[in-house]
Amino acid sequence: MTSTRGDHAIGNTIGVEILGSGSHLPETRLTNADLEKVMETSGEWIVKRTGIEERRIAQWDKGEKSSTLATGALQKALDDAKVTAEELDMVLVATMTPDMPTPNVACIVTKNLGCRTISAIDLNAACSGFVFSISTAAMIMQSGLYRTVGLVGVDCLTTHIDYTTFGRGAAILFGDAAAAMVLRTSDNPSKGMLAHKMHSDANGSEHLFIPATREDFPKLDDYEERKLSKVQMNGQAVFKFAVSKFQQVIAETLEEAGISADEVDHFICHQANSRILDSARARFGIPEEKLLINI
User: Fold this and answer.
1) What band does 3 get if pLDDT is binned at 50, 70 and 90?
2) What is the Cα–Cα distance from 73 to 94, expressed in whole angstroms?
3) SS3 call for 284
4) Which residues have a Cβ under 8 Å from the Cβ of 183 and sit 6 or more positions away?
5) How far is C-alpha 100 from the chain's CA centre?
6) 92 forms bridges with which residues in the sheet?
7) pLDDT tens digits, 11-31
8) CATH topology of 2-193 equal to that of 202-292?
9) Which of 151, 156, 171, 228 makes the best surface tag, with the fewest CB within 10 Å?
10) 202-292 maps to which CATH number?
11) Which has the closest alpha carbon to 171: 152, 184, 158?
């Protein structure tokens, strides 16, 4: 949660501003009609349950992958901020789908953009990755270590999707994309993060995981070779968890910042599912125009 108001700042003498933003999408579109051709589903049902009409798909055989999407997004953010790549002190990339185990995506991005030999870090927190990353970046910057940071959230989850009826629950949701911000420190501490709350709860990890080996399955009887490296999801359990925790963490962050939902100009939330977002809007009485949705 960020704000330009100064009366609830978290007590740091260094502020952190968002100078610019950008995004980069693959060209290929996978529509609900396309999914109807390969699995038992309907576009009407998908829209009703998720609000999703299409998703973008990276073509790895044509050079589209996490690093190329991340590079495109960060370059657009730099252009928007009127900042050069040489001015960056760190690149922090939130991703769970690196091109390869090493080098990490952030390192490849710094090479692509022609950065100096700066810090280049990948952070894997799945759906929460970008929120974790902006909080982490802000805390590092407020320590005085870095002045200008490039922050990217990117995933190419379609490489882990089973496009059959068996994998339908995940196939209707996930696409590929990247978004980026350029952050810079400010002498005005009121410009920056008012409060942040980060939680991890692995108690329900069996409801959403990507197995690498047979031993990764909570129940070995559930193992099938075709499931390896593919998203395994209990949609109903994940939805219930998301609705509950979504509302909880918003309430905690508002309390930490010392403000009410009415004082927030816009809520920009994880765009997983329109029903999850609608539940938060109803819980806090958020007007439709304040909850930004791009699903």
Assistant:
1) very low
2) 13
3) helix
4) 16, 17, 18, 19, 134, 137, 138, 141, 148, 149, 150, 151
5) 19
6) 121, 151
7) 568 889 999 999 999 999 999
8) yes
9) 228
10) 3.40.47.10
11) 158
For 71-120, the DSSP string reads: HHHHHHHHHHHT--GGG-SEEEEE-S--SSSSS-HHHHHHHHHT--S-EE
For 176, residues 6+ apart whose C-beta sits below 8 A from its C-beta are 25, 26, 55, 56, 57, 58, 64, 69, 155, 156, 157, 158
HSE-CB of 209 using CA atoms within 13 angstroms:
18
Residues 6+ apart with CB under 8 A from 159: 58, 60, 97
Q: Which two tokens stand for residue 284?
A: 């806090």
As beta bridge partners, residue 15 has 186
Give the start-to-end residue ranges of the domains of the chain.
2-193, 202-292
Do the beta carbons of residue 198 and residue 132 sit within 8 Å? yes
Helices (H) and strands (E) in the chain, counts: 8, 13
CA distances to 77, 184, 190, 268 from 2, in Å: 18, 14, 9, 11
Query: From the CB of residue 173, how many other CB atoms can be counted at a distance below 10 Å?
Result: 20
CATH topology of domain 2-193: Peroxisomal Thiolase; Chain A, domain 1 (3.40.47)
pLDDT of residue 12: 67
